[in-house]
Amino acid sequence: MKVLTTRIVLIALMSASLAVSGCYSSAVSLGKCTAKYKTCQSAARDFESGSTLSVRNDLGPISVSGGNVTGCQITGRMYVHAPTKRQAKEIAEQVRLAAERTDGTLMVTVEKPPLDEKCAVWTDLEIVVPSRAHVDCQTELGRIRLAEIEGDVRAVTEFGGITCDQIVSGNITAKSEFGAVRVKCAGTCPADLVAEVRTEFGKVRFDVPETFQGDFDIGTEFGSTSAKLSTASRDQWKRHRKTATTGSGNGRLFLCTEFGSVRLK
């Protein structure tokens, strides 16, 4: 009976997850198509390799790519909703893509005029920086995508998935309230990688470099865990949680979700 009850709960939660995820994607697409006014802003700033990029976006996704560049290129696509097209245009004219430097950090934000409950501004941010940048991204509603970053990585969203691809960083933090998290480390990622990945509702997938050595702790409340790594010792090895050590290094991985599966390989 206990097993049956658990399965019923899992099926119900999985159905809810898929439904909300589908609604999220549909709502975003519909919202962009039905916006009363659309505009685009761009900015270019000097950016020293090894410095910090901090991005804050309350409504909309963030995408940051590292490359062989000498500065920071920012593009913001704004979708404005208002009762009339004229009102939407007036709001759009007051929206500003800001990029200001303070204490060695380039802070990117979207400045908006006061809005009533009938109006909203959704902004897609796409940014290119030198690969050796440290990146700190946060949005309330929207996905975060990071690629080919070598500096420290921090990605936080309340509602949306997180994808980190070909990350070379030795320090990774990725947190979502509702959304899957996917991290793929490059082969050149440090063997003593330290990472913390959390989501309340969604699956976690984490690919470590073959050279990784250290401790890992992966767990879920509802779901399963899998670790395809050779281990020197296994402190705890159960379906819902696995703690172990591989090699003799100082790496540390903590991966967890309330509902969903966790896969480490």
Number of separate strands? 21
Number of helices: 2
Gross morphology: flat
Nearest-integer average pLDDT = 88
Largest sheet: 11 strands, mixed
Structural class of the secondary elements?
alpha/beta
How far is the N terminus from the C terminus?
Answer: 33 Å
How large is the share of residues in beta strands?
over 45%
- Indicate how many domains the architecture comprises: 3
**H-E order:** HEEEEHEEEEEEEEEEEEEEEEE
| Whole-angstrom Rg | 20 Å
Would you give an account of this structure?
By secondary structure, this protein is α/β, with parallel strands linked by helices. The protein folds into three domains: 1-34; 35-131, no CATH class; 143-265, no CATH class. The protein has helices at 2-33, 85-92; strands at residues 37-46, 52-59, 62-67, 71-81, 96-102, 105-111, 120-130, 134-141, 144-147, 153-159, 162-167, 171-178, 181-185, 194-201, 204-207, 214-222, 225-227, 233-237, 241-246, 251-259, 262-264. The strands form two sheets. An eleven-stranded mixed beta sheet has the order 5-6-2-8-10-12-14-20-16-19-18. The protein has a ten-stranded mixed beta sheet with strand order 1-4-7-3-9-11-13-15-21-17, covered by helices on one side. The chain is flat and about 65 Å long. The two termini are 33 Å apart. Residues 1-20 have low confidence and may be disordered.
